[in-house]
Specification:
This protein is an alpha/beta fold. The chain contains 7 helices and 17 strands. The structure holds flavin-adenine dinucleotide.
Length: 304
């Protein structure tokens, strides 16, 4: 019986596992592979690589620790995780079964892609999924944001502070009663196209523009240096959705300390909320491990 099983090998899971081990907890991390979504970096024509710190670099020391303590890690896909009496049972796709007194869920989220020509080729070459990570690189440039809802609205507002011109290509109508919508409509350097479909991201080595079909069916070429894809993301919470409280989008609800609605279960990272930043998730993972430690100390004190 492990003290804690961590599910997910992205920034939140890796940090949670490393912190749990440092606290001398009997720990197992189960991950499909290391790294999660951190494999992406951004290259721009006029940026030097020394200006970029990658998520992989940030996490490498923790990951090395887990590779050294290889009995603490298990590479497989978790097929089932559920409570049983006073502990938890975790089953993997290959048929292994593990038990623990507590769980940390750090299974991340799936980014939704545009699925248009140029997207895959220019990802990291001006096309990004994270304004928090890459927005400031586009100081004084023209950029496009694709999306309609909260993530796209926030992205366009934030980019308007750095960029010269922001085009918001919203596939649907912007909901009039959302608080950021009137703000966006007032910003002079934000141009909104509702009902717009991005057909292609253009550029040879770096993003040079987008081809967009407008609501009236016309096609236009818009020159931009950056494209931010801000479509809704899907949290990977299927494993626990039946027995843990999640919000309407499936994100696990956590308190300030990473605690969930089920005692002994903690969650961290993109599966809980969408801060979309490796640095933040490193902290969230550490916090969840600290809380799991506190919970286990309480259990041990209670049971003698
Ligand atoms: C294209 C892109 C670029 C980004 N760029 C940056 C950036 O430059 N800087 C920055 O700070 N942030 C960036 N982000 C955001 C950042 O990568 C994420 O916020 C962060 O990786 C989330 O960490 P996480 O640990 O919560 O989840 P993830 O990184 O999503 O990791 C979760 C892992 O758990 C695995 N998993 C899920 N379910 C199971 C299961 N049942 N069994 C086993 N394993 C499972 C997943 O396969 C995944 O490997 C970017 C995100 C994207 C998509």
């Amino acid at each position: 019986m492990y003290d804690v099983i961590v599910i997910g090998g992205g920034p939140a899971g890796i940090t949670a596992a490393a912190m749990a081990i440092n606290r001398r907890l009997d720990t197992l991390i189960i991950a499909e592979q290391w790294g999660g979504q951190t494999a992406y970096t951004m290259q721009l024509q006029d940026k030097e690589t020394y200006e970029v710190i990658t998520g992989e670099e940030l996490l490498s020391r923790f990951r090395q620790q887990l590779d050294y303590l290889d009995f603490c890690r298990h590479f497989d896909w978790v097929a089932k995780a559920e409570p049983a009496d006073d502990h938890f049972i975790v089953q993997t796709e290959d048929g292994d079964q593990f038990e623990s007194l507590s769980l940390i869920i750090a299974t991340g989220a799936k980014p939704q892609r545009l699925e248009v020509p140029g997207e895959e080729r220019l990802a990291g070459q001006g096309l990004s999924y994270s304004v928090v990570a890459h927005g400031a690189l586009f100081l004084g440039k023209d950029v496009a944001v694709v999306g309609t809802y909260r993530r796209a609205q926030l992205a366009a507002c934030e980019l308007s502070q750095y960029a010269h011109q922001v085009y918001l290509f919203a596939p649907e109508l912007l909901p009039a009663d959302w608080p950021l919508v009137p703000v966006l409509r007032r910003l002079e350097n934000v141009k909104i196209h509702e009902g717009a479909t991005v057909l292609e991201v253009k550029g040879e080595h770096f993003v040079e523009g987008v081809v967009v079909q407008t609501v009236d069916g016309a096609t236009m070429d818009v020159p931009v240096k950056g494209v931010f894809v801000k479509l809704p993301r899907k949290p990977n919470s299927e494993l626990v959705r039946d027995w843990l409280e999640c919000d309407h989008e499936g994100r696990i609800k956590v308190n300030l300390y990473g605690g969930t609605s089920y005692p002994g279960v903690f969650a961290a990272g993109d599966v809980t909320h969408m801060s979309e930043q490796v640095l933040v998730h490193i902290g969230e993972g550490a916090k969840a491990a600290a809380e799991a430690h506190g919970y286990l100390l309480g259990l041990k004190a209670r049971d003698g």
